[in-house]
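Hi V.,

Quick status before I head out on leave. The structure for the redesign project is tokenized and pasted below; the design run finished overnight.
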């Protein structure tokens, strides 16, 4: 992949200028030096992803988007999946990580590699190169590690790192294992510099100390200046972090968060977030983003910006077919077009997951029904009506639908053909109130 982007035509001076406009750079080494590196001949850069979970999340997606921008500008990407550092985990702001079994980490590493490969170019003349730091770290003895790598790190500098300092002052403290993480990551950058001529590392802003440790190590042992930059931690309008550490993970793996729910997450973002999210998470041209932001201000009810954002991000991560299926499912659920019978079972189940009702044991599940049950009874069980009599009145007024077909008879029962995929019956009250029942 050659330099295929005309940044002047796109309204930017360079890829660095575009990344800054999109709000994708939080901290960096000397800007002039970084600009010179990115504006010259293609360089090799890398970003690390530790398999501390079975999937990446949208915090990691920011790094992948940065990698894609640089790849599109002709620079050569390396995706490091931390087979070694994933066994340790970088220090969190609070609390020690739970160490996962080696076979679990190896399995997660393979899953992350597949996810990354679905987002970055893996073919052509500028494909992403995958590496695992386990390949060079596992070969080092403790003595070699301490003599060849650890000797170059100063304790005072390590203790001053923000996360380390915070953990040292906490009640739990920090273990030597997690304290050593920055040395391992620094050694990764040195190895990739020696092996592939890698001169740029990128990561999240919470990784700044780890990134600069590698930069300092290369300068000390190779006498060469390299660059690093970080992207900001993405937050919502209230300042709350999007990410798994906050308990509201937006996973990239479709088996952990369905494409339907992923699409809905982006579609439901408020107008105030549109500018920052469109800039950071899409590759839309500057002029189009500015038009969408203006449209969200003058005609917010149309939600064109949200619709575009949801399409762009979901199709980027899950592909256009899965994204269209999510859109079709949403339309069909509320009778706005489309056939419920054409929605695949996984998408349908994901789309109605929020319609589960709380049972006697406190756990949520779909209302349990059987063939032969009356629709009005199923509607009560699904939480649409408080009583059978209320459900009957709604049927009389023509406001009850079974799988988008109006219920005309108060005594209508559920037949074999009424269960979508042999499992689900969807009951709607009016235009917006939806309930779901599952055959038992």
């Amino acid at each position: 992949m050659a330099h295929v982007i005309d940044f002047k035509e796109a309204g930017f001076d360079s890829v660095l200028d575009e990344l800054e406009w999109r709000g994708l750079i939080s901290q960096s080494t000397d800007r002039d030096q970084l600009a010179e590196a990115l504006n010259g001949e293609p360089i090799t850069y890398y970003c690390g992803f530790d398999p501390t979970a079975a999937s990446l999340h949208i915090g990691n997606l920011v790094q992948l988007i940065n990698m894609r921008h640089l790849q599109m500008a002709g620079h050569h990407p390396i995706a490091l999946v931390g087979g070694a550092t994933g066994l340790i985990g970088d220090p969190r702001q609070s609390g020690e990580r739970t160490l996962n079994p080696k076979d679990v980490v190896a399995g997660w590493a393979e899953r992350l590699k597949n996810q990354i490969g679905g987002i970055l170019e893996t073919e052509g003349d500028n494909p992403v190169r995958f590496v695992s730091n386990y390949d060079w770290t596992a070969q080092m003895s403790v003595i070699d590690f301490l003599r060849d790598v650890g000797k170059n790190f100063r304790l005072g500098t390590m203790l001053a790192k923000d996360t380390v300092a915070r953990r040292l002052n906490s009640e739990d403290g920090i273990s030597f294992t997690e304290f050593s993480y920055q040395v391992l990551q620094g050694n990764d950058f040195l190895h990739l510099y020696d092996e592939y001529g890698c001169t740029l590392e990128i990561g999240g802003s919470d990784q700044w100390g780890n990134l600069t440790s590698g930069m300092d190590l290369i300068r000390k042992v190779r006498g060469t200046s390299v660059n690093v930059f970080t992207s900001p931690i993405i937050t919502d309008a209230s300042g709350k972090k999007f990410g798994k550490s906050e308990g509201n993970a937006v996973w990239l793996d479709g088996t952990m968060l369905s494409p339907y729910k992923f699409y809905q997450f982006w579609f439901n973002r408020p107008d105030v977030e549109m500018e920052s999210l469109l800039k950071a998470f899409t590759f839309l041209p500057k002029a189009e983003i500015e038009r969408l932001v203006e449209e969200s201000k003058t005609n917010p009810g149309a939600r064109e910006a949200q619709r575009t954002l949801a399409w762009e991000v979901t199709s980027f991560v899950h592909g256009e077919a899965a994204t269209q299926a999510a859109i079709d499912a949403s339309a069909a659920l509320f009778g706005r077009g489309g056939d419920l019978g054409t929605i695949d079972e996984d998408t349908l189940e994901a789309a109605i997951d929020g319609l589960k009702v709380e049972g006697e044991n406190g756990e949520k599940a779909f209302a349990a029904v059987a063939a032969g049950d009356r629709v009005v009874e199923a509607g009560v069980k699904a939480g649409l009506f408080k009583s059978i009599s209320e459900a009957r009145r709604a049927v009389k007024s023509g406001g009850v639908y079974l799988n988008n077909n109006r219920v005309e008879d108060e005594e209508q029962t559920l037949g074999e053909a009424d269960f979508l995929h042999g499992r689900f019956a969807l009951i709607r009250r009016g235009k917006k109130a939806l309930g779901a029942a599952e055959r038992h």
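Above is the designed sequence. The CA atoms of residues 44 and 196 lie 7 Å apart.

G. will cover questions while I'm gone.

Best,
W.
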